[in-house]
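Hi V.,

Quick status before I head out on leave. The structure for the redesign project is tokenized and pasted below; the design run finished overnight.
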């Protein structure tokens, strides 16, 4: 269940830690390096007029969208990273296709300033 590329449902914390909201997220940490925690990226169905350079748009018309378990066009916010205890994962929704995960990796590198 805690594999890289899995789309899961978690209580995702607000950046000011005032509260959290149940949201989909994608696991980006590698299982062999995980202990009790998992690193995830926030997924939102709120689509701004302009997406950020570190956002990846998942369109319901994409050939692999159905495998994600998402219902609406969504953005993976590669600059919204959280490390959470595995015990708070509420469930698994689906997974990202390998091609989509490669795009996430590129956006994540950009967000973290890695070459």
């Amino acid at each position: 269940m805690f594999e890289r590329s899995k789309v899961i449902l978690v209580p995702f914390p607000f950046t000011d830690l005032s509260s959290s909201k149940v949201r989909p997220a994608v696991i980006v940490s590698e299982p062999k390096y995980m202990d009790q925690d998992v690193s995830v990226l926030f997924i939102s169905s709120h689509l701004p007029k302009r997406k950020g350079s570190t956002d990846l748009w998942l369109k319901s018309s994409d050939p692999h969208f159905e495998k994600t378990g998402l219902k609406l066009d969504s953005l993976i916010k590669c600059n919204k990273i959280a490390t959470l205890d595995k015990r708070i994962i509420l469930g698994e929704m689906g997974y990202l296709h390998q091609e989509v995960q490669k795009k996430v990796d590129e956006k994540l590198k950009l967000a973290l300033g890695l070459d």
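Above is the designed sequence. The first strand starts at residue 6 and ends at 13.

G. will cover questions while I'm gone.

Best,
W.
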